[in-house]
Amino acid sequence: MPRPKSLTPEALAAAALAVVDRDGLPALSMRAVAQELGMGTMSLYRYVREKTELEALVVDLILSTVDVEPPEAPWPQQVTVLVRRVRDAVAAHPNAVVLTMTHRHRSAAISRWSEAVLEVLAANGFSGPRRVVALRCLLSYLIGAVQLEHLGPLTGPSTAVMAGNAEFPLLAETARAAPAVDHGFARGLAIVLRGLEG
């Protein structure tokens, strides 16, 4: 196959994301992306050295869609909107959730988002260790909630197993009630923000 004249990182990322969205994360390979681009596998190595580079490009592409401009609102609402935007961007590509967790530190897009959140916090009196803790809490909540929502849904098989576990009656009772509850993202985030306000 002839090699395209030039490929941008965005084009590589789009092709890799197309593979992941269509065929799932296990299908992502240099060969699959090369086929998506209509080129030979070895030609792809002119642009990226290994699959992990493709994975990082995918994450940056997903997160680059996040609007980092906070709305005109009190700071807790600004942070809520910024956090929900990341969640929604990741939710649009559920097959890539694991990648967003493992490659987020390599993403310039998540750094831009973090900077926007920090600007909101700094403008509202968060500084030093308090600001560190606030950002860490928000990231921890966001990462954990997204993972649970997509990799351990309340209606999934793990919940059914817990619901039938007689050894831990409170856990079983809670698991039986879980399918009637939405994922609780907004409620959990509101709790985190109330804690940060205090």
List keywords for this structure.
67% helix; 198 residues; Arc Repressor Mutant, subunit A; 2 domains; mainly alpha
Descriptive overview:
With 198 residues, the protein is mainly α. The chain has two domains: 9-49, Orthogonal Bundle (Arc Repressor Mutant, subunit A); 65-197, Tetracycline Repressor, domain 2. It is built from eleven helices and no strands. It has helices at 9-23, 30-37, 41-44, 51-64, 75-91, 97-102, 108-123, 128-151, 157-163, 169-177, 185-197. Helix 5 (75-91) runs parallel beside helix 8 and helix 9 (157-163) crosses helix 10.
What is shown here, in short?
With 198 residues, the protein is mostly helical. It contains 11 helices and no strands.
Low-confidence stretches: none
Measured on Cα atoms, how large is the radius of gyration? 20 Å
Number of individual domains:
2
Tell me the structural class: mainly alpha
Our estimate of the beta-strand percent is: under 5%
CATH superfamily of the largest domain: Tetracycline Repressor, domain 2
Number of helical segments with 4 or more residues? 11
CATH topology of the largest domain: Tetracycline Repressor, domain 2
Largest sheet: none
Q: Shape from CA axes? A: flat
Order of helices and strands: HHHHHHHHHHH
Roughly what is the average pLDDT, rounded to an integer?
89
- N-C termini distance: 61 Å
What's the architecture of the largest domain in CATH terms? Orthogonal Bundle
Q: What is the β-strand count?
A: 0
CATH class of the largest domain: Mainly Alpha
Helix content: 55-70%
